[in-house]
């Protein structure tokens, strides 16, 4: 069997299994999606969003890119965020990085990786801002893992800086942004405990409140 045929066979078996477990499963999904969570994660194949948090189809809205970044000029990510916040009314946004992220590592290297170097450029800035802390870490692996954490923390802040999120807060919408880092080594998520629910932690220059 061709590799790709195997995927189609898997799909057929999965759809059959889901219908056996719940004959109304697909009909219910067709009717509507009402996820309470938006996941913004890395494209890495080892970090499957739904499986990591035990969510069924329909329960998690997902956006993934290399090194789970939120960039103010990325209309792909921002369109997902706007739809999730303004139409789906998600209550939680999970920014989920992972230890050993190849994208974060590539950003620390001096060699060229092609187009992705441009995408990863903001992570070089994160390294520069936290240069002293990172350089004080002895092991290369530990230093990279800390940069993965700092990247997530920065992306939580980047989300809070958007007009989309701040306008939602101004409308009185309940909306929390969380920063997590997933470990491929043990399958567990570490909460960075940087959850934001309002703009109070943002410097004044980032406020849109007039
Ligand atoms: Co990654």
Keywords, separated by commas or semicolons:
binds cobalt (II) ion, Beta-carbonic Anhydrase, Chain A, 210 residues, 2 domains, alpha/beta
Can you put this structure into words, describing what you see?
Keywords: Lyase, Metal-binding, Zinc. It catalyses: hydrogencarbonate + H(+) = CO2 + H2O. This is Carbonic anhydrase. Helix content is 47%, strand content 14%. It has 210 residues and is α/β, with parallel strands linked by helices. It has two domains: 1-31, no CATH class; 33-206, Beta-carbonic Anhydrase, Chain A (3-Layer(aba) Sandwich), CATH 3.40.1050.10. Helix 3 links the parallel strand 1 and strand 2. Helix 5 (102-108) crosses helix 6 (116-129). The longest helix is centred in the C-terminal third of the chain and has 22 residues, at 140-161. The model has no long low-confidence stretch (mean pLDDT 96). The structure holds cobalt (II) ion. The site of cobalt (II) ion has 7 residues, from helix 5.
């Amino acid at each position: 069997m061709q590799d790709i045929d195997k995927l189609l066979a898997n799909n057929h078996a999965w759809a059959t299994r889901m219908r056996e477990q719940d004959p109304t499963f697909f009909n219910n999904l067709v009717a509507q999606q009402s996820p309470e969570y938006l996941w913004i994660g890395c494209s890495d194949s080892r970090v499957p969003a739904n499986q990591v948090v035990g969510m069924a189809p329909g329960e998690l809205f997902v956006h993934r890119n290399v090194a789970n970044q939120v960039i103010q000029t990325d209309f792909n990510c921002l369109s997902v965020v706007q739809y999730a916040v303004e139409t789906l009314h998600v209550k939680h946004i999970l920014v989920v990085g992972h230890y050993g992220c190849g994208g974060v590592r590539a950003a620390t290297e001096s060699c060229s990786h092609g187009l992705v170097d441009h995408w990863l450029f903001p992570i070089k800035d994160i390294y520069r801002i936290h240069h002293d802390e990172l350089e004080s870490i002895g092991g290369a692996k530990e230093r990279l893992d800390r940069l993965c954490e700092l990247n997530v923390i920065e992306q939580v802040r980047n989300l809070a800086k958007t007009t989309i999120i701040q306008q939602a807060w101004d409308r009185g919408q309940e909306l929390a942004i969380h920063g997590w880092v997933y470990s491929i080594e043990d399958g567990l998520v570490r909460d960075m405990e940087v959850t934001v629910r309002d703009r109070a932690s943002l410097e004044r220059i980032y406020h849109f409140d007039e």
